[in-house]
Amino acid sequence: MKAVRFDHFGGPEVLAIVDLPEPHPGPGEVRIAVRAAGVNASDWKKRQGLMDEELPQTLGHEAAGVVDELGEGVADVAVGDRVFGFSAEPAAQAESVVLSHYAPIPPSLDFAAAAAIPAALETATRAIDQLGVRSGHTLLVSGASGSVGSAAVQLAVARGARVIGTASPANHEYLRSLGAEPVAYGDGLAERVRALALEGVDLALDVAGSGVLPELIDLAGGPEHVMTLADFAGAQEHGVRFSRGDAGRAIHAIGEIGELIESGRFSLPVAQTFPLAEVAEAHRVGEKGHARGKLVLVIGE
Q: Which of 8, 58, 146, 225 would suit a FRET pair with 15, their CA atoms being 20 to 30 Å apart?
C-alpha cells in the first residue's frame, strides 16, 4: 500500500510516498480503506524532529474510510461500513490503516469532512471537560477560529455556556456563526473582554499559545481557572494547567458528536484538500498558518 513516510528530518521535501505492507487489525480494531486523512501541526513538528527522535516515521492519527477487515470480537460495524476515528500508530496517511477507536460517519458528512474531526474534537472535548465548562459559565477561548478553538466554542455553547472568542477581525463573523462573541486579540484584550463581561470570565482556554496567559489569569480570577493547550513553558511559569493527552484522552467524543453534527450545532470546515502525493504541499500550506479549517489528504476513490 502507498503511505507517507520520511527517512530523515527536514522541510516538506523530505516527505515521500512509499510502499509498505498492509496492516491487519487486532482484537477490537478495524481496518479501513482510507478515503481521507487529517493533517495536523504535529505532523510538521515530527517532520522537523521536534517531537519524536526515531526514524523512519509515518504520519497521521485520524482518518475516515470504509471498513474492509474486522479484528477479533468486533460486532458493532461490518465490512463496507463508513467509519472515522483514530489509529494508535501514526500511520493514517496511507491507503489502509487500522483504527483502534472508531464510530460511524454521521450521514451528512463526506469522507473529507469526517477526517477533519477526530483530533480537533478530542482535544477540545478533553480541554473543556478538564476545565469543567458547564451551563451558565462564561468561557473565554483565546484562538477561537482554528479547528480546535472552533470545536471548543461549539461544544461549550452546546453545554449552555456563554463563549467569548479571540480572533482576527476577518474571522469575527465566523465566530458569531458558531455562537461566540468575538473580540480582537492583541494589546488591550482585557479591556475588550471586560466591555462584554464587566466582572471578567469564569474560565479561559488558551488554544493559540500567543503569550496571553497573564491576561487570561487576570480575567478569569486566578490560574486555577485557566488551561492552555499550546504554551507549556507559560503554564509552568504562571501555574496554569496544561492539557495533556496522557492524562486521559476524550476518545469517547467521536461516538457522541453525531447528534450535534446532524442537528447543525457542530461543524469543522475543511480549508483545503490534497491528494496523497501532494502531502508536502499540504505541509507548506499548514505551516503558513493562514488556513481557516482543516487540511485533509484525499485518498482512493
A: 146
Domain count within the chain: 2
For 81-131, the three-class secondary structure string (H helix, E strand, C coil) is CEEEEECCCCCCCECEEEECEEEECCCCCCHHHHHCCHHHHHHHHHHHHHH
Residues 195, 94 share a domain = no
Tell me 73's DSSP state. T
pLDDT at 286 over 70: yes
What are 232's three cell numbers?
A: 507549556
Beta strands 101-104 and 138-142, pairing class = unpaired
Has residue 25 been placed in a domain?
Answer: yes
Q: How far is Cα 26 from Cα 138, in angstroms, rounded to an integer?
A: 44
Nearest to residue 256, comparing CAs of 77, 81, 122?
122
Residue 288 confidence (pLDDT) above 90: no
Whether 117 maps to a domain, the answer reads: no
Residue range(s) defining the domain that contains residue 71: 2-105+269-298
Which three three-digit cell numbers place residue 254? Answer: 467521536
